[in-house]
């Protein structure tokens, strides 16, 4: 008969092991920023899909390239995010949403985190090279902008840090497109512009919600330096700039155009309403949530309206 204490000890060790594994997985997910990877893969997939559509290439001829594109893009983004976390280790303890990152808690050593970021980045570039060198080049450009120009240079110095960072966030559709059609087309550039313009109102709305934390961390976000009125004006201007872009994707059909215009006008109306609302935090939350739905619905619609496209 088993000793009860031995059984209890073994059970305790198993529970502790599972807890440690769960914690490690959570730490890794926090470092690579899974949410950012997922949202960027949506746009990368859309770029890949539309490149197939406009070039008349069957998906069945490119399924290996598709897998390599998604994997390479995810790895490059993950690597950049890990390095971003490593670099921001001095300010993350100040902000509530970043206080549980392993760079703050110390659950993973800083040298390991830095090396992880470098390794993931290099691996991502190598994987993308197995698609086209142009796709890998776009990936490298996005990584450089995010890690060097945004994280290390502009984030702590200038209010235009959001605009600078937007270049990197707009790259995934180009990676996806270039993996199929290295020469790109006008439609690929429109995808880039949509994502570039979309990011500023999206992140400025978040900055309004986290103004005090950014201020305490010494990050010169627009709401911190110039206040909410200026931020609202900037948000509305950027949202208005999105209005004409769907016209250049008219070949996707009337269903897409109507959806895109409704989404854009709805966002603009909500933005203008902010000038008359007294609760800025509530308005910023609405704008932030709307921006997420805008991007998700718009890019999924681009795929849906082209689904009759034969595999």
Task: Describe this structure in a few short sentences.
By secondary structure, this protein is mainly alpha-helical.
Explain what you see:
The chain is mostly helical and 311 residues long. Helices cover 76% and strands 0% of the residues. The chain has 13 helices and no strands. It has helices at residues 4-32, 34-55, 63-87, 102-105, 110-129, 133-154, 161-169, 172-180, 186-209, 211-217, 222-242, 254-273, 280-304. Helix 7 (161-169) packs across helix 9 (186-209) and helix 9 (186-209) packs antiparallel against helix 11. The protein is flat, with a radius of gyration of 22 Å. The relative contact order is 0.11. The model has no long low-confidence stretch (mean pLDDT 91).
Radius of gyration: 22 Å
- First and last CA, distance: 62 Å
What share of residues are in beta strands? under 5%
Which blocks of ≥5 consecutive residues have pLDDT under 50?
A: none
Secondary structure topology:
Elements: H1 4-32, H2 34-55, H3 63-87, H4 102-105, H5 110-129, H6 133-154, H7 161-169, H8 172-180, H9 186-209, H10 211-217, H11 222-242, H12 254-273, H13 280-304
Helix pairs in contact: 2-3, 2-8, 2-9, 2-13, 3-5, 3-6, 3-8, 5-6, 6-7, 6-8, 7-9, 8-9, 9-11, 9-13, 11-12, 12-13
Provide tags for this entry:
mainly alpha, single chain, about 300 residues
